[in-house]
Design brief:
The chain is globular, with a radius of gyration of 17 Å. The chain is built from seven helices and ten strands. By secondary structure, it is α/β, with parallel strands linked by helices. The longest helix has 16 residues. A hairpin with a 2-residue loop joins strand 1 and strand 2. It has a six-stranded mixed beta sheet with strand order 6-7-8-3-9-10, sandwiched between helices. The protein has a four-stranded antiparallel beta sheet with strand order 2-1-4-5. The protein is about 35% helix and about 30% strand. The two termini are about 30 Å apart. Helix 3 crosses helix 4 and helix 5 packs parallel to helix 6. The chain has two domains: about 150 residues, Rossmann fold, CATH 3.40.50; about 70 residues, no CATH class.
Length: about 230
């Protein structure tokens, strides 16, 4: 599904987040944790898969298609198959929970009837049924992140990309969010999470790809955050 082939990413003036000849294959239905210290390249890898940024050299393929070769209209179609979850939630503060999730479908031109049905299902799935008319400011951090996850899954994506999704929530909510990602993965969606949450990684025993100074230093099935 996703193939990263000998990718190098160089940032002007800083080595933080840079990648040096990274190659990685992620199959459909996989659950992958990207781990490593700050600046190791985890977020850069997430952004390359979404094509928020382009590699300096090398190739990124999604379902066999070279992401760099896509026209704007083609890229938009690919991005419809990818759900993004952010550390800082990135909710629209002036919109309700329902409106935040619906927005992901409105930009795709879905009918109001389809939007109502799909948003309701997504909110029920993340445990927010009954919160449709609440505004983000009235929600806890964990609830806000659940809205972010609902917004990501409402498109029925092939892949969920999450960059430090538990970074702004407490430990108990972090555990519940990871259980939600695991449930989403069981339905067949590929899940890729960049995280520092070592305890959650160690407890879940999923595939772990460890980065250090822009290099993949470890790729283990049923792995842990570190060897320590």
């Amino acid at each position: 599904m996703i193939e990263i082939r000998d990718v190098q990413k160089i940032y002007n003036g800083s080595s933080a987040g840079a990648l040096s000849g990274v190659s990685l294959n992620i199959a459909r239905g996989d659950f992958v944790f990207l781990v490593g210290p700050s600046g190791a390249g985890k977020s850069t890898l997430i952004k390359l898969i979404f094509r928020e940024i382009d590699p300096t050299s090398g190739k990124v393929f999604f379902n066999g298609r070279d992401m760099a070769g896509l026209r704007e209209s083609e890229l938009l179609k690919v991005r419809r198959k990818i759900g993004m979850v952010f550390q800082d939630f990135r909710l629209l503060r002036q919109k309700t929970v329902f409106e935040n999730v619906a927005f992901a479908l409105e930009v795709l031109g879905e009918s109001p009837r389809a939007i109502r049905a799909r948003v309701s299902l997504a909110l029920e799935r993340v445990g927010l049924a009954g919160k449709e008319n609440s505004f983000p400011s009235r929600l806890s951090g964990g609830e806000q992140q659940r809205v972010g996850i609902a917004r990501a899954i409402v498109k029925d994506p092939l892949v969920i990309l999450a960059d430090e999704p538990t970074g702004n929530v407490d430990r108990e909510n972090s555990r519940r969010l990871m259980e939600l990602f695991e449930d989403i993965n069981r339905s067949g969606t590929t899940v890729i999470i960049a995280t520092h949450a070592w305890d959650l990684v160690n407890g879940m025993k999923k595939r772990v790809v460890a980065l250090e100074k822009g290099l993949i230093v470890r790729d283990e099935e049923r792995g842990t955050y570190s060897h320590e």
